[in-house]
Write a structure and sequence with these properties.
homodimer; 196 residues; mainly alpha; DNA-binding
DNA sequence: GATAACTAGTACGCCAGTGTACGAGTTAGC
DNA sequence: GCTAACTCGTACACTGGCGTACTAGTTATC
């Protein structure tokens, strides 16, 4: 279920245009979650029919774009050092995650709309697991609170990240300040305000 | 711009069906943000045409539903005591707000999709202002952090509330626990985790 | 009880976006 | 350089929801 393509043999040019289409999809959907298949085709410099030649339906294309974005994210997040002080590790993780989320917030929205319930989460487990593990580790050392469900904390972090992206989009948050704001918010969220 | 109806004279039965339609709209949209005009009409026990007799377009109907929901919210929130200890006041405010948000989360989403950018915010200022004022007061007394923009804090609270509603909808958060979780999360968010 | 307001059904035009069909041109790969 | 794969345009069917038109029946309200 990794990179085993359903169609074993494909011509090089096909491969190339698929790449371009997926890239375009990522790009368009990251700006407008309702981007049309036609929009994406145009952005890829390709006919709409070509798109349908490789992706049966729009949802399928959205999923491909998402998977690609997640893969890129994994690559980036994989390099983050999660050892050592839990809070500092969280800061590092957030610093890296933030850019990714900010960039792909709309894409996430798109996926949420067309993918079957739960599918997104399924694809997204990698990132979520990373956060969850770190939180658990932090809890064990009393660096993070334990009075709230871990699931909630993990998702709350997501909501904050997503929210910050939204705020920027609406011009209510200074992009230059965002990373700091997000980190500060999350850190305190993970700390009980009235004792551990 | 308050309750000055554009049409001065209306028959009693018309008034009644408008009420029923708006109520139905609130109800339907609170469950499915994509609810159709027809769905709403059916739920109101009324023909689709009757709906169009009172609301020119779907967005107009959505707005009416939203306004009604907000009015109900105002009524409830107006009774909350915001004096005294800022943190306790915030807890009280959250306890009341929570139920409202949980109930109308989907309606908010619907509004966000069809209303022109910013319109929602415009209608929603009442609630936002209340939170903002309270936060400012809390900051003045060093009860709340001052290292982050107030605007952000206010909106972050919204995102958390909205997120919690989503989590419940997906069965990932126990509704009975939600109020406590939300309150705890927000309270710590409003407190700097490394000194005021 | 006359009148205007309201309800409501059916039928329609419209629109945008999806996905299909066909067919002609182009290009990679052996 | 032959063949199969690929590209891509035009055209079209389909869908679902919106909003309009017309018409007939009902019901407040004076």
């Amino acid at each position: 279920m990794s990179s085993a393509d359903p169609r074993p043999r494909r011509r090089a040019d096909a491969e190339r245009s698929i790449t371009r289409i997926v890239a375009a999809a990522r790009d368009c959907l990251s700006r407008d979650p309702d981007a049309t298949v036609d929009d994406i085709a145009k952005a890829a410099g390709v006919g709409r029919m070509t798109v349908y030649g490789h992706f049966r339906t729009r949802p399928e294309l959205v999923e491909a774009a998402l998977v690609e974005a997640l893969r890129a994210g994994e690559r980036m997040l994989g390099g983050v050092d999660l050892t050592g002080d839990a809070r500092q590790a969280m800061s590092r993780l957030l610093a890296s995650s933030w850019a990714l989320v900010a960039e792909s917030a709309a894409l996430l929205t798109a996926a949420q709309r067309v993918l079957p319930e739960g599918r997104l989460r399924e694809l997204h487990t990698g990132a979520a697991d990373r956060v969850e593990q770190l939180i658990r580790r932090g809890q064990a050392v009393r660096a993070f609170r334990s009075d709230l469900p871990v699931t909630w904390l993990v998702n709350a972090v997501q909501y904050i990240l997503h929210g910050a992206a939204e705020e920027i989009r609406r011009g209510r948050l200074d992009p230059a300040d965002a990373s700091r704001v997000v980190t500060a918010t999350v850190q305190s969220m993970l700390t009980s305000s009235s004792g551990a």
